[in-house]
Amino acid sequence: SAVISQKPSRDICQRGTSLTIQCQVDSQVTMMFWYRQQPGQSLTLIATANQGSEATYESGFVIDKFPISRPNLTFSTLTVSNMSPEDSSIYLCSSVTGDGQPQHFGDGTRLSIL
Amino acid sequence: AQKVTQAQTEISVVEKEDVTLDCVYETRDTTYYLFWYKQPPSGELVFLIRRNSFDEQNEISGRYSWNFQKSTSSFNFTITASQVVDSAVYFCALSAGANSKLTFGKGITLSVRP
User: Fold this and answer.
1) How many CB pairs under 8 A join A and B?
2) HSE on the CB side for B43, CA within 13 Å?
3) Which of A11, A18, A7 is CA-nearest to residue A83?
4) Is B62 buried (19+), middle (13-18) or exposed (0-12) by CB count in 10 A?
5) Which pLDDT tens digit goes with each residue over B32-84?
6) What would the DSSP string read from start to end of B81-106?
7) DSSP sequence for A65-103
8) How do residues A14-69 score in pLDDT, each as one tens digit?
9) Using the beta-carbon criterion (under 8 Å), do B45 and A110 form an inter-chain contact?
10) Is B50 on the interface with A (CB under 8 A)?
């Protein structure tokens, strides 16, 4: 299965700032996804990162708040913009290789906003 | 729309007890996939199993077993002879395709006491 690395693993940020989270996969993958897990909650899909085109966002998530890039088949970034305390969550990247392997996740980025 | 219900929120057992985690799903798709993931206190999401809608065979892997019943739209997970290391949050998830986004249940917090 693909190995997914996320950076940073955790961060503490000031209100109103932005943070970019990186997701690197060790092999080419067909699909990459970004999920949010708010404290004590389940995982909610933010968007599907599409290679070479705009991400596909789920209801309740917008590009201005969560811009996503995917310049190639192994890398994606998620930016959390103009952060507020409500954005304090774990953000997880996942990928699917398309060869029948199940969806695997990175270790997540624990984000706290003061 | 897809939906996953994990009615149990927290379960506490004593080591060596058997425990069953329930999962009920809703989907209009004829082809779909069901998953179980484990999230230990360290936070990473660990893949446990994937089942497609055409394979209703129960599966056993060591102390873990899964019971898939399409008639009741359930995909339950049993841990036999539980151990302290089984303490984690367990998520059941559903996708429309092998490479599709996941819809998660709210998760079940399992505590295994020595």
Assistant:
1) 49
2) 17
3) A18
4) exposed
5) 999 999 999 988 999 999 999 998 888 888 999 999 999 999 999 999 999 99
6) S--GGG-EEEEEEEESSTTSPPEE--
7) TS-EE--SSSEEEEEE-S--GGG-EEEEEEEE-SSSPPP
8) 999 999 999 999 988 888 999 999 999 999 999 999 888 889 999 999 999 999 99
9) no
10) yes
